[in-house]
Request: fold
Amino acid sequence: MNLEEIAKEIKDCKKCPLHLSRTNAVPGEGNPKAEVMFIGEAPGRNEDLQGRPFVGAAGKLLTDLLESIGLTRSEVFITNVVKCRPPHNRDPRPEEIETCFPYLERQVELIDPKIIVALGRHSALTLLKKAGRREGSIMRIRGKILKIRLFGKVRMLMPTLHPAAALYNPKLKPLLEEDFDKLKELLGKRERGLEEFF
Ligand code: URA
Ligand code: SF4
Reply:
C-alpha cells in the first residue's frame, strides 16, 4: 500500500457521516519521504472545494511560514486528522476522528517523518491522547519537542498554534514564528549530523 493508494481509498471513503456533506475528501499532499509532516485538524471550505489541504487563508500563512524557514510545501507532507470537512466547520466528533484515524496512521507509518508538527490544539491533543498522554493547554506545550510513542514507535512531536488562530488574533503570530524557528533549528542540527539531538 503506498500513499497514492491510501489517497484513492480516502477519496472514495464512506466510513463516517462526514462523507455525506463533503464536496471532496482531502487526503493530504507532499513529499512521500518528508522529514516533516504537518497535521491540521480538518479541511475547511476551500480545502473541501479543491480536495487539497491548507489552500485557504490559513494555508497561505502556513506556506509563508514554511518558506520563511527555507522549506517548500512540496518538501514536506501536509494533511489533517480527519480527511473530510465537518459541516459549517464544526469540530470533528470523537467517533469521526476514531473512524478516520487509520488513514493518518498509515500515512505516518509510510512517510515515517523525523518530526510531526501538530497544527493547533485539536490536532495536538488528539495525537497526544493516542500516545496515552494528557496535556491540557496548547500554550504550555507549543514549540516543545515531545517524544511520544505513536503508531508503533517513538516519534518527535512539536505542537504549535493553528495558523487560523494567528489570523484571528495577530498577537499569536510571533509565537507561531518562534515555533517555526525552533523547527528550523532542529532540522539544521540534523543536517549537520547532530543526531543525538533527537
Ligand atoms: N485548517 C485545517 O486544520 N486544515 C486545513 O486543511 C485547512 C484549514
Ligand atoms: Fe472516511 Fe475520514 Fe471522510 Fe469519514 S472523514 S468519510 S472516515 S475519509
About this structure: DSSP finds nine helices and six strands in the chain. Strands lie at 29-30, 36-40, 77-80, 115-119, 146-150, 153-160. The domain at 3-190 is CATH 3.40.470.10 (Uracil-DNA Glycosylase, subunit E).
